[in-house]
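Quick note —
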Amino acid sequence: MGLASYLWSAAPFVAMITVECTDTGISVISKAALTKGMSNVVSVVYYNALGTLILFPYFIFCRNKQAPLTLSLLWRFFLLGLIGSSGQMVYLTGIKFSSPTLSSALTNLIPIFTFLLAVIFRMEKLEIRRSSSQAKALGAVVAVTGAFVVTLYKGPPVLISSPSTSKFPQHLLLSDQSRWIIGGFLILLVCFSSASWNVLQAATVKEYPDKMTIVFFFTFFITIQSLVFSLILERNPNAWKVKSTVEVAAIVCTAIFGSLYRIAIHTWCLQNKGPVYVAMFKPLGIVIAMILTVIFLGDTVYIGSVIGSVIIVLGFYTVIWGQAKEKNMFLENEVSHLESSGAKAPLIHSS
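Predicted structure written out below.
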């Protein structure tokens, strides 16, 4: 009984570790597939179409049919898909120009951008006199500073893979400074669009709580939209041919682990442990990305990536600390309010 309860309590920790490993692994596999010649726009069509097919039985048999699907909700699903389809294409282009290590570092900015957008749209209050608000504001500034460091400064190499380890041409994998900067800013743009997606999704979930149905329509609309984008942007018919096992692996892994598995685990951990617990694992992806890119891609880790990543992580955890402190203050105020209300209530009501 004790062992079973211990294993169950450790399950969220193990699950979040696997999510970070699979997310980083998908970036590495995608980088390898793009190096092999996979089209970044066509691949978005394939793996979202596969994700839609996997979720289709759930939509038919298991979805909450009592929750009505209105035109307003379908319009929101369409907008979520539009943000997602354009973001996924830009993200793969950014990965192609830079590296999974840079991507793992910059994606830690998504909670920061989400917080800034929530403040701008008055979904969250920023009371600058409180230490929690000061921590969140300072953390946001520090994290954005780290993003500029990791994007604009490469510096000397820190980890260099031996030539025999690399399975791909080195001149294709190692971007020059201009390509690195372009890739970094493309990923930054995707982080901002992901933050916008988070804000819109939060408002959508309040109206329609069936998350898996939202994911189904999300992948469905991305498939249609990315197909239209691909027909416009990709004029080479050969780009639609899947030529290698690496490309197949990238499409299948992204469909299963990049969407379905990640969302299921995040939803489960959010319900059991809360948002702070889920967010605290994000910086782990930087370390995993550095190891995997050196081992499997023969990539090089530069000092700028290490310094910028450390700055981003410091800013990230400062914001998380501020949010956790603010939540604890809110809970303490609620408890004290209930206690004061109970103390004022008469024990015996006079008739």
